């Protein structure tokens, strides 16, 4: 087996598309629209790759093709490519490979070393939502200057096993990112951040503690939410994430992080039309500088309360009001709360 990062020169070449999905290839991927053989499907591409190398009909599944490709760089991509290249010997590291892939692709916390290994490979979960994060390991090996994804693979693939089995040796690369995640996790352990599951509506109200931001330097107006801590505690299929700030609350509505992928064990998440809910919340708002808007700037984001520049801005609505509105929307009784909040009866259809 050999790896080549995908480019147009491979368009007409038969290949194994591992993690990403590209044309004229056999898919071993969890990306939407993949055509991965049913007998090896799994939630992460790394687990799919492990199923492939363990399959007794591996040659039949790969049709004897030796070229492996991927079209992007991240932890799950690196680990799934490495697994296919390594073959059956990779099965010895199954318990390290899958949790690290889940940390990278789903922001899930299975154990500390898995999270730290993923940070070494692709960076921390709280990177800027508008800027790609260069692999800390690739950066260390390459030095200054621009690094493309193909070069990241060349640098990182030979070191995957060592990262997984000697993660502590890479502490300078994971320390800062791990500190941000640990601070968020600790706030839930202390109860200053909390989750309230909203019954049968499969919706979670997540209230984040201000200390997450003051201690770590994480800025909710510029960075993604601390998904790993949220995913570890929330069980809903839709999250209302509320952060208290001076003048009100920052709000964002998100799906579970894994929801972008085609999963087997994790439930498939319905992407909802929130238009009516957002219109209704805007009727309740008393902040002319902001509005509830659909938002897909991040892989999991559904809606946010934003100012004219597209940044989070404080809403005056309390989490209880917004939460009840969402529950009513999900259960199809969205007019009740509006009537209660405005003190009027509603006859809207």
Provide a descriptive summary of the structure in words.
With 349 residues, the protein is an alpha/beta fold. Helices cover 39% and strands 14% of the residues. The protein is built from 14 helices and ten strands. It has helices at 45-54, 58-62, 75-86, 94-106, 112-122, 136-142, 149-156, 160-165, 171-190, 211-216, 227-233, 275-284, 319-331, 334-342; strands at 2-3, 15-18, 25-28, 67-69, 194-197, 203-207, 238-245, 248-254, 290-294, 301-307. The strands form two sheets. The protein has a six-stranded mixed sheet. The chain has a four-stranded parallel sheet with strand order 1-4-2-3. A hairpin with a 6-residue loop joins β9 and β10. α5 packs across α9 (171-190). The longest helix has 20 residues, at 171-190. It is globular, with a radius of gyration of 22 Å. It starts with a strand and ends in a 7-residue tail after the last helix. Mean pLDDT is 90; it is low at 126-131 and 341-349.
Give the topology, please.
Blueprint: E1 2-3, E2 15-18, E3 25-28, H1 45-54, H2 58-62, E4 67-69, H3 75-86, H4 94-106, H5 112-122, H6 136-142, H7 149-156, H8 160-165, H9 171-190, E5 194-197, E6 203-207, H10 211-216, H11 227-233, E7 238-245, E8 248-254, H12 275-284, E9 290-294, E10 301-307, H13 319-331, H14 334-342
Parallel strand pairs: 1-4, 2-3, 2-4, 6-7
Antiparallel strand pairs: 5-6, 7-8, 8-10, 9-10
